[in-house]
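Late entry, written up from scratch paper. The run itself happened at the end of the previous shift, but nothing got recorded in the book at the time, so transcribing now.
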Amino acid sequence: MALVGLWLLALALAVRQAAAVLRLPQDERLVDLFAWIGDNGVLRVHGSLYDGETPFTGTPFAGLVLKPLTRAAEQGLGVAWTLGTMLLVAAVGVVAARALPGPVPRRTALFAVPVALSLLVLSVPVRNTFHLGQTSVLPVLLVLVGWLLGGEQHQRDRSAEHTGRGGPLAGAVRGKPGSLRKKAVEALGGKAGGVLIGVAGALQPATLLFVPLLWLTGRRTAAVSGAGTFLICTLAGWAAMPDDSWTYWIHHVAGVGLGDPADATANQSLHGALLRAGLHGRPEAVLLVVLVAAVSWLALRRAVRYARDGQLLLAAAVVGCAAVVASPMAWQHQQLWVLLAVVGRVGRRTGDRVVWPVFVVMVMTLDGTALVPKVAAFGVLGENAVLLAAVLASCAVPFVLRTSPAWADPQPSGPLSRPNLMLELLLIRVGYWAYSYVRGHAPDSRSLAEGHGHQILTAESFLHIDMEHSLNRLAARTEWLRDSCDTYYTTFHFLVPIALLGWLYARRVPQYRAARTALSFATLLGLVGFWLYPLAPPRLLPGQGYIDTAHGPQDLSNPDFGALTQLSNQYAAMPSLHVGWSLWCTIVVFMITRNRWLRALGVLYPLLTTYVVMATANHYLLDAAGGVAVVAAGFYVQRRLARIRGGAAPAEGGPAAGAGRAAADADTRTEPATRAVPGPSLPGQSSSEDRRAPAGQD
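Output as recorded:
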């Protein structure tokens, strides 16, 4: 059923992507393709490919190949081109899934193809390719097939030569194990693979980096045929279009300057990054040549190592990432190589192994600014996220070799081990980005939100708990109280939970796992509330006399007032996550300490937060009740998950209990006895004072 579900998901994503293109008007879909083949498109006129208002960005050989297809592409603009691109994407997914280094369990092999297709369709390069009508998927497919064609057999023959054992055909010639088979592979698969890579290089010059990879891995026949094919295709372009070839290869140096400005953030190459950093002219050119040479050398050296280790797909991804880095123009539709680097295994612990694939998938599916905080110091990382991932994959990330014991048997990450900090920070940042995105895109109909506001006021009046108006008036006319409430509202909401999470991560790992899971589910439930029940807070409810203490008097007659500062959806008020997160902090304080003063402060925090959100006219009292409900539900879900996993995090009664109790848990793994664990219970644990667990369970 899971396999069927994955295939249905992949199909739904593919259909959605195709529909997103086909439902657009014809002059708005496949914008690059339309510019090439329109009435004044560069592929229809007899002039230069590179002199029009929308110049061709491909190689002259690419223009030579596409020109005969112009009329057919125009007649079937949309359906045929989109379906053809979808087939190319599907072929890349199938080839990549089939190229996973063995031995691959049967279940993994079955799940690999739909997972690969889903990731490809969700990735920015594929989405950008569909939108533009580009042909960038074709060179990737040609290189993958060319590199893998005969590559696996070549590696087996090399291994047989070193060990003195060959296949059935190799035994035909004594003293030369594998020689006949090797010649057959080189003559057929090697030459054909080289030809495919040569054609890909003629379409996208950066992929020529695979030619030296073929040579360095011993596939010299393929390398020669690849270089020869590239020369033949390029010379054919020179013969047919000498002026355009001169413009592309000499004047624009392999396409530099064609299309959008090279310093645009969509150009994730070293050239683009150096231009964005303010370097120009000869200093930039010299530094670019040095850096490109260094990246290419390191990438080829690493790729040869992984190829000899039997990880052909990873070797291709490493060199492909180097091609993205080295290419003068690496636009979004040309960055698919970075996603293929997800196949590399990194880390010796199971908890560390997911960091790299999660990072790569996020970089290739989200905007770079979603991965870093909105701080000026991190802005450079955000706008160069894809380039950073490509450099890491090609030059730095220590991928595990198949000969390493950690390849198939990584060290387990138990409930007492500290989660990977990089993964936690990445998930927290992306989680907050998703929270802000969903909150900002939740339904924000003013009439609906104001109607819900009147419902809340009516319910509170019936229950005799409508105290918001008096609290707001008191704060508005008392300057020190107003300023204190506004500062409290904008500061403590983030500061206290982040500080507690950091302390738990550093000192109380089991509690950190439980607490962050509960907080995540509580926030998710809060988003559901924002979406299902848009609610105008008191300060946005006309005619009720509430005062916005932070922004002063507002013109509520303005029909666009609901946008307010245009930063978020102001009708996301039910439940109050200010109150919910503060209650989460109280529960965490009770989890980690028995100190009466700290617990008293913990109890005071949500009470004070509840007062502040009402005094500033940002929430109703029932919003606070909603915040309490989602936090309670979050801890309940965490507890159920802990029971499903068969165990819960151990309790800790005081600051010094962590190390001793962890040691006691370790001791019980070798003693056939039961143990008593006193102390306050946590979510997911029994509430009894003495919990007995079988030996060996944490």
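The beta strands are 675-677, 691-693.
(Scratch paper discarded after transcription.)
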